[in-house]
Specification:
single chain, 266 residues, alpha/beta, Rossmann fold, seven-stranded mixed sheet, 13 helices, binds adenosine-5'-diphosphate, binds magnesium ion, P-loop_NTPase
Length: 266
Amino acid sequence: MAKKPPRIISVANQKGGVGKTTTTINLGAALAAKGLKVALIDLDPQGNASTGLGIDHNDRDKTTYDLLLNEMPLADILRKTAVPGLVISPANSDLSSADLELVSTARRIFLIKDALTGPDIDVLDLDYILIDCPPSLNLLTLNAMVASDSVLVPLQAEFFALEGLSQLMLSVREIRETANSKLRLEGVVLTMYDRRNNLCHQVELDVRENLRDLVFKTMIPRNVRLSEAPSYGLPVINYDPSSLGSVAYKSLATEILARHSKQDGA
Ligand code: ADP
Ligand code: MG
């Protein structure tokens, strides 16, 4: 039986600093550690996911920009990382102009979809593609959602956490109704969670009451190892395997895989 196409997940939240990039890198690494083949697409002009996986800023000839606007095949762009099974399409500041250049392109919201479908992708034999979105609901993020099976939303456990989420949900619904009927919410993962902080706990209760099953059981704790790892160009799972951050992202990967095998079986 032919292998299924890779599942494509956008990691999105228009707020900056909520843990999108940290989640993309470490969920990707956790899935790869389970023997899956995973490609990350760095879609943020800041290129933090690329830096966090050890790709130097001066060493990014072929980037996600070429994937979108130069029709370069993904296979020519993907770079190895220190983690077996985990590859990345790097990004740099070229992408910041892409948002504007896309406006005048006929298939402006389908460019990533076009780039991630077809025989070129099949030969890569990937299980997952994770897209690290920029902190905005711009054309780049819309492109990611049009190409995706689902959207994974990291939500920082802080006051007003739910604000802004409704706008993201609205975009997801719009794209489902217009350009990508299969798009669903993968779920919401609470990040930078601090057990000792009562406000964090209140926010958790609030978010769970509102979003119910959409919220993952796994919460990502605030853990200094998670913020240190990128400066070594490594996911936390490799930098400090026994850290709380590492344990949490492995647990998130397990939860996601369980949901997917249930969906596949249904
Ligand atoms: P985004 O991609 O949404 O802008 P990042 O993943 O880059 O957010 O996270 C913002 C900052 O917070 C980074 O410096 C990152 O290292 C740090 N960070 C993210 N998640 C955690 C966490 N669970 N514990 C501690 N620091 C974190
Ligand atoms: Mg980021």
